[in-house]
Amino acid sequence: MAPTTNTLDRTNYLNATKGFMSWFWTIDHKRLGLMYLWSVIACFIMGGFFAMKIRLNLMPGAVDFATQTAEQMNAYNNAFTVHGAVMVFLVIIPSIPAALGNFVLPMMLGAKDVAFPRLNRFSYHLWIIGALLFVATLLIGNLDTGWTFYPPYSTGHTDPSVITAVLAAFILGFSSIFTGLNFIVTIHKMRPPQMTWFKMPLFLWAIYATAIIQVLATPVIGISLLLILVEKTMQIGIFTPELGGDPVFFQHLFWFYSHPAVYIMVLPGMGIMSELFATFSRKPIFGYKSIAMSSIAIAIFSFIVWGHHMFISGQSDLMSVIFSALTFSVAVPSAIKVFNWISTMYKGSISFSVPMLYGMSIIWLFGIGGLTGLFLATLGTDVVFHDTYFVVAHFHYVMVGSALFGFIGGIYYWWPKMYGKVVDGPLAKVGCLLSFLGFNLTFLPQFVGGSKGMPRRYAAYGSEQGFDDWNYWSTMGAMVLLVGLSIALFALLRSFFVKGTLSPANPWGGVTLEWQSPSPPPEHNFEIDPPTVGDPYDMSLVKYCGEVEGFLPVNPRADDPCVAYIEPEEA
Amino acid sequence: MNMYTILSMMLQHQKEDFFFPSQASANAATVDFIFYFIFYVSLFAFITIVSATAIFAWRYRRSKVGMTPEDSPHHSTIIEIVWSIIPSIFMVVMFWYGFEDFTERRASPADSYEIHAKASKWQWEFEYPNGASSFGFIDAGEYQGKGLFVPLGKNVRIRLESSDVLHSFSIPNFRVKMDVVPGRYTDVWFNAIEMGDFPIFCTEYCGTKHSRMLSKVHVVSEEDFAVWLKENQEDPNASPADKGKRLFSAKCTACHAVDGSIKIGPALNGKYGTIENIVGGTVTVDDNYIRRSMLDPKADIVVGFENVQMTSFAGQLSDDEISNITAYLKSLTE
């Protein structure tokens, strides 16, 4: 008899308790993960709204360069500040670690929760406080510093809303530190005995490397933002020359965090890539150890390359040369990961399910994002491209291409585990395709505009400057991207509100432990405790069973894969 | 003739090409060569990884639901070493090219002709060794002021300074860019090899009208440059009001009009001797009020401009200059 695992009516973590407080005051990592997920998606919609405002404003003909008023310019400057700040601090940094990491990490370890569940809840509450303060500041205040808060502009020449904005970022930083700390302890102390470090899923390696950066780097941005606060409110000279400070000093402090933060954003996406390529090729990941070690290498190197944001800032030329050389050291482990993912496909059995479509998109997007980074690590060419749209396009390819597409791919991958429904239909595939095409149409033209000298953060460009064509195509692409992402979100919401395809415990054939739990999981994650730990990428451990439309653990004593699941109970 | 020379000859493109504006300075060709070197290496790498992905995806697509493929190797030390070392070698070359070019570009030749550029919100001012000066910004969509003049074929060093926030001095046709940092000097140098006018951009966000902090560099022959320098020298016998007008157009017109229209700040024509509404009362616009407005702009703010942050000119204008500007403003009411 085939087991029935489609159990939306059965008691699970979603319906075990009811009411607002049962969610708001929960310590269940799965519920916290979901709350992060929807908070992040809400922030993403807000950041996306301002992205569209930017793109529509830059559409040739939308604004007359000659008659644009100071108020209109100021509105534009506010828009790019809100877009950047929201997307960095409220979307990309918490997206994968806090939302998906929280949901998946303990289950991948076969654990019931993270090491410090109450600290985990505290992180989320801090995040909500920080996020509300941040969003309120951005919407009510007149913040126009960009997300970088460079002094002396931020401390002496603009609105007081800088004060609440940096305070909010400071609070958000603590949320990030606590989450990182929690994950480090959980991975160290709560792995099942059979799961040695090198039997750990690669997503956990990536989250582990990310958590190290979160814990070590975030305090530095915290203190730098406090120094901004001290200078702005008490006129104590730290960064402003008139008060005896040095503006370049702030850039060192800022990028000492913000460059590693790039890897807080990208590493978890890479972790998801490793899971997707193994599962959807039904093959062990190629070069497990080098992927795991490259995550750690990236985490370490990320701390010694910040100066490449400052080649022309006025820092000493010798430092620029050293930072340029060090920067290339990050490129090698990133390249290794890409080669490993592609090799995993070789002689595999590749499924074109939605998560894998996002995975394959990332090869293209991260390929461009990574390779264009070479121009910016090289001193001579960086001088030309610095603060132009070439840089804007480059980091969007990395941030959106790897982090955001990885995030969406991860949501589709674990959606069956979260809500017990599989979303793998044509609509979701069209959403992925349109997002991919729209993204490229938006940002490829920006490389060319940038190489021609188009500067960032300009409220308008005169036609005679010759950037109109590139801005036109970029805005067109943004509309396609908007449609694509809306479809991707709609496909998920439709399965949430309308009855979608019910999911078996293991719809994709993953071997990591979370797939041994029913979809959606019970409150304490596993019905059988503890789950059987094997090699996380040994695909022969699960077999497809047509009757459940999913994969089941293999029973060595039975040929029919569908017999396997109930075997332990019968024996 | 080595590979480097051959390749760079192939990539010489004086005129505008797909990626870059014209190569108007002597150093531009080297940067473009480095760009195209990285570009072709990257393009090759990109095509390789993307086509491998596409080919594998198609060749090994799943033909039957849930199908498990046959065993194949999932580790190879040799392959992994090879694909770590080959990119590393290319990166060493890229670093080296960039490093050589950077050292070349950061050290200005000893014989450079030096021009001082002062950045402030939101305009550029240029001062030449003989006392001539010019300025530039954009208003109503038009370039204002004369902009920067440089002689063709001479090494020119621009010493950069800022009187308020961070700015950045960028001329894409010369492939030069450098941040302008308050409290210290920075510099760029170039040797212009093409006659004509090229745009100057501010490329570090500096506030509301960042996108209007634009000017032009005019590359002219050495003879024309000498003539221009003489013409733009300040006339020592000019009246205080005329001297003030010159100062006003260089330092104040980015924010203050003299035709009654409101820019960032209030218009200043016809104000002298009138009574102005300020926050918390009224004030007579006299010599002392004008002086105070320049040195301590936040002391008496005109109603309606409470949110405008004017930078103090203390330390930037001498007493003589202040009284010249006052004389000019006075002349606008007579």
Short description:
The complex is a heterodimer of chains A (571) and B (334). Chain A has 16 helices and four strands. Chain A is mostly helical and 571 residues long.
Any chance you could write out the topology, listing elements then pairs?
The complex is a heterodimer of chains A (571) and B (334).
Chain A: H1 20-24, H2 29-58, H3 70-108, H4 117-140, H5 153-156, H6 161-189, H7 202-234, H8 247-281, H9 288-301, H10 317-345, H11 354-377, H12 379-385, H13 389-419, E1 421-422, H14 426-451, H15 468-497, E2 501-502, E3 542-545, E4 550-553, H16 567-570
Chain B: H1 3-10, H2 28-59, H3 77-106, E1 113-120, E2 123-127, E3 133-139, E4 142-144, E5 148-151, E6 155-162, E7 167-171, E8 176-180, E9 186-191, E10 196-202, E11 215-220, H4 222-231, H5 240-251, E12 275-278, E13 281-284, H6 287-295, H7 319-331
Parallel strand pairs in B: 1-6, 5-11
Antiparallel strand pairs in B: 1-2, 2-3, 3-4, 6-9, 7-8, 7-10, 10-11, 12-13
Tell me what the structure shows.
- The complex is a heterodimer of chains A (571) and B (334).
- Chain A has 571 residues and is mainly alpha-helical.
- Chain A has a single domain (20-570), classed as Cytochrome c oxidase-like, subunit I domain (Cytochrome C Oxidase, Chain A), CATH 1.20.210.10.
- Chain A has 16 helices and four strands.
- Chain A has helices at residues 20-24, 29-58, 70-108, 117-140, 153-156, 161-189, 202-234, 247-281, 288-301, 317-345, 354-377, 379-385, 389-419, 426-451, 468-497, 567-570; strands at 421-422, 501-502, 542-545, 550-553.
- Chain A has a two-stranded antiparallel ribbon with strand order 1-2.
- Mean pLDDT of chain A is 92; it is low at 1-5.
- By secondary structure, chain B is α+β, with helices and mostly antiparallel strands.
- Chain B has three domains: 3-106, Orthogonal Bundle (Helix Hairpins); 113-231, Immunoglobulin-like, CATH 2.60.40.420; 240-331, Cytochrome Bc1 Complex, Chain D, domain 2 (Orthogonal Bundle), CATH 1.10.760.10.
- In chain B, helix 5 packs across helix 7 (319-331).
- The relative contact order of chain B is 0.10.
- Chains A and B meet through helix 3, helix 8, helix 9, helix 10 and helix 11 of A and helix 2, helix 3, strand 8 and strand 10 of B.
